[in-house]
Structures are given as structure tokens and as C-alpha cells.
Amino acid sequence: MEPNSNVPAQSISNPKAALLGLQHLLAMYSGDVLVPLLIGGYLHFTAAQMTYLVSVDIFMCGIATLLQLKRTALTGIGLPVVLGCAVQAVQPLQNIGGTLGVGAMYGAIICAGIFVFLISGLFSKIKDLFPPVVTGSLITIIGFTLIPVAFQNLGSGNVSSKSFGDPKSLIVGFTTVIIIVAVNIWGKGFMHSIAILIGILGGTFLAGAMGMVSLSPVSQASWFHLPQPFYFGTPTFHGSAIITMIMVSLTTMIESTGVFFALSDLTGKKIEQDDLKRGYRAEGIAAILGGIFNTFPYSTFSENVGVLQLSGVKTRKPIYYSAFFLILLGLLPKAGALATVIPDPVLGGAMIVMFGIVGAQGIKILQQVDFSKNKNILITSLSIGMGLGVTIYPQIFQFLPTAARMLFTNGIVVASIVAVVLNLCFNGLHGDSNSEVQKSK
């Protein structure tokens, strides 16, 4: 029997809604904590700083989700969505933080959030600018440009270290991958939907047995704290960093649009231009708050669409519980510190799977494109090729001014520019979307 796609919220008991909310939290938790762990680790944050970063990020995920759930005249898509850290922001934020400092990173996030809020109305009208040949190319490059980061973590994090790629790290990392794959093959229902989380837990337990895990950050963490504005310092504002994060925000808006329409189809609720506008505004406000409280930009998580499909309960009530659970966990630093003890090789193994899946989703979108036309082959090949090229060899632009170098050494930004510009050149602003689709479909 097919699950009822329109189960009334009032027909779900509070205990059941709470359990379903916990299920949503678990499905997205690994993706949530991964971004602060990667960025904080890259910037060499202390154990105390990492604990705060993870905790406040979890807290802000709950706030961002509430902003999107609650439909107002100004904000909120009003669909059962969960928001988390935008994974495509990892590499740009690492570059900004490592080059210009942590303050520049958060200044860029605030400005990007303001930009998203201001252009929400316009963006809801220009969907034709992002046909499958563009969105597919962008999502593919988002996944593939992060694979080198995954392998760096797999080898224990520091490429210049003599111990990089030692057997213990590889055993733990590849075991994590094997667990994730095994759960995906043989896991059923909810177990299947949290394969990444199970893999991370299994890999961490193995690493602990091999003496690679220290619980001292948990013992040192306090039991309770409140988020503090500008915890890591006052934001600073640099043009190159701001433009980079604006470009990342545009790719995030593209992805969120796809999730919005997927949820519309799943719940049977048609979304209009005004709905999209409110959804984008909510993500813009969430990014502004992320910059103020020194976390990250937030986007709608696609992982939870599958959870909705599996549970058959497609109302917002369980998501409200999930949001409140996230806020509660974010107020408990010891819960946040638990995530910081995960070894780099475990994260690397999980990242290979997660980012590979993101790239594969992009390829799936590209299946809609008619590649019998050379112009579509050129758009895809050049955007992906340029994005991968500058990711692997950013030194190619070492003689450019700092501002330009910040932009053109970011694979996601380069791929975005190339894909959009080439699509405009070949297909125009109002290209025939039907020409994108393969005639055999």
C-alpha cells in the first residue's frame, strides 16, 4: 500500500511526531556536523573553539529550519523542509578564512545573506537562466571539487606530514566506506536512510579501538551555553570574499529550488512564485544570522526528502520537533564535543561517499540534456573541466591580483560563471527548455 501523502498534522500524536522528528535529525546530522568540522579543522581551531562551532551550528540549523517552516507574509516556504550547512560553501570558506582571516569569512556570509534576501523576488522570476545543462553541471562540480578534500582527510589530514596515508588511517577510512556501502545494500527502511551516520559511528568505534580517538574534548566541554554574537571576532568585509560567497549562494539557491519542487511533487502542494520568494528570503535571513553568530550559510537539505518518502508522513509537525531538538542539542556543548572526536580518516571515508553522491546527482540531472547538440556538450565539458582544473592546480592564477585570484581559484565559482555565460551565449536568456530534453525521453 502506498503511504498517504497528505496525512493531516493533527492526526499524528505528539510522541509519534517526536520520533519522526528525531529520524529527520539523524538523517541530516552527519551532514550538519561535517561542515563545521572541515572548516574548523582547516583553520586549526582549538578543541574549545571546535566544540563551540559545532554546537552553535547545530543550534542555528534549528533556527534556520523554523524560519523556513513557518510561513509568513515575508518568509517561509511552508513545506516540510530541514535546513543545514551548505556543503558547497566548504572550500570557498576555507580559502577565505585561510587567506583573509576568520572575520572576512563571516563578513562575506553576512553580505551574501543580505544579497539573497534582496534578490529573492528577482531570482524567483529567472528560472529559465538555469536549465538542466547548467544546474547539472554545477551540482556535478560541487561534488567532484570536494573529492580531493575527502582524500586529504582519508590520509589523516596533513598532506605534508610523514605519517600521511599510514595504514591505520587507510584501514579506518576504507572501513567507514565499506560500512556505508553495506548498509546501503542490505539496510532496510530507516537504517538505509542513515547509512552515512552508521558508517561514521562504526569507523569511529574502530578508530577508538586502535587508539585514534580522544574523549578529552567531551570531558572539558561545559554542559550548557548560549550562542554569542561574533564569538570569533568582528566581521571584516573584502570584495573578493563577498563576491565568492555570493556566487556560492546563487548555487545554493539553485539547489534549494530543486528541493522545493521535489517536495511540492511529494506533498501534492503546488508552489507559486511568491512561495519561492519567501523560501529564498528565509535562507537569506538564516545566512545573515549564521554570519552574526559565526556559523555558516544554510540551505534546504535534499537528504530529508527521502525520509519523508519512507515515513509516508509529509506534514510539518515532525519537522517542528526536529528543529526544536536541534536547538536543544546546540545548547549542550558536550553533545557538540562528541562530534569533534571523529578522526579525520573516518570523515574522509564518509566524504568520499557523500560528495560522490552529490556529483552523481548532477550527472543524473544531465541525463535530461540533449547531448546530440554540440553546444550542450561544450557547456558541460568546459564548465566541469574548468572547475576541476582550478581546484587541482590553483597555482595557475598565482600572478593575478588577490581579489581576482580569490574568485578564479574556486572551482565552484569558475564552473558557475562558465556554465551560465555559455548557456546565455548558446541558448539565450529564454532558451527553449524543450530543446534541452533528450528526444528519446
What features would you describe in this structure?
This protein is mainly alpha-helical and 441 residues long. 67% of the residues lie in helices and 1% in strands. It is built from 19 helices and two strands. It has helices at 14-42, 47-69, 90-100, 102-123, 132-144, 147-154, 167-186, 189-193, 195-209, 216-220, 239-267, 273-292, 303-311, 317-330, 333-340, 344-366, 374-392, 402-408, 411-427, and strands at residues 83-85, 298-300. A two-stranded antiparallel ribbon has the order 1-2. Helix 1 crosses helix 14, helix 3 crosses helix 4 and helix 5 (132-144) packs parallel to helix 17 (374-392). The chain is globular, with a radius of gyration of 21 Å. The relative contact order is 0.22. Mean pLDDT is 81; it is low at 1-7.
